[in-house]
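Intended use. Records like the one below are meant for learning the mapping from a protein sequence to its folded structure. Do not use them to infer anything beyond what is encoded.
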Amino acid sequence: MKQKITFLLFFLMLLSSVNKNAICQSSKKLIEITPQIVVKNFYWGEYNDNSVQDLEEYGNLYGGGFQSKFKFSQNLDLFIYAEAYFYNGTVDYNGFLQDVSGNFESYKSETVYEWFESTFNIGYDFNPSYYFSFSPELGFQFESWDRDIDNGGQYGYNEIYDMFLIDFGCTFTTRFSSNAKIFFKILGEYPLLIDEFINLAARGHEGPEEINLEPQPNIGLNAELGANTYGVYFSVIFDYLIFSKSFFDQGFHQPESDRTIVGIKLGYTF
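Structure written out for the chain above:
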């Protein structure tokens, strides 16, 4: 009887070990793809040389896309993280108009945004235990947005921003089971290139057809807090970036600006 009990305990311990290893192996998917819908609450501010705010834009942008994670093998925790999103939306514009005498008066209107962004990072999963992991990553991000100020109106113009950034940071993950986890991702982001193109003549304004500005870069912050439960993905995102004053081109410049984004992502992981 004693031998049977000992054998039964040994068998249960072995079965538990096998199940745990099976869970660990099943959690290591080589490919994860998560289509998503995204809502971003967007804020843009511009400031004069005395740090007084001259302009603000605020409103929601709506879009979608996907994020994906590709592992090289079950035995190597090196991965590639890639994502791509497209957004658009109309936000409130609160700024000023300048008359022929050089005087300013407040002006409220709308700005239409069309926005594309993509990321390509390489990282590594460190797993101190089954329940906790951290994943440093490094890579690049590209953003491009078309900014239709005054929504096609007579006082506005179009700007096109292209921005190429380097990303660096880490994701911290707590796993409750093979189907449930929470995570916190924090990244620094630094623009290697910021190119701003403006055409003032397109709507009949007196001014050049091609103005090229390069706002000066600063380190920004990108953070995401979320959960994935049985494939359902939900997260809250935050992004903040400051653009320092650009040099002049043909008498025009981009003043100091900042961008703040708070949003949510909802998707499903395959």
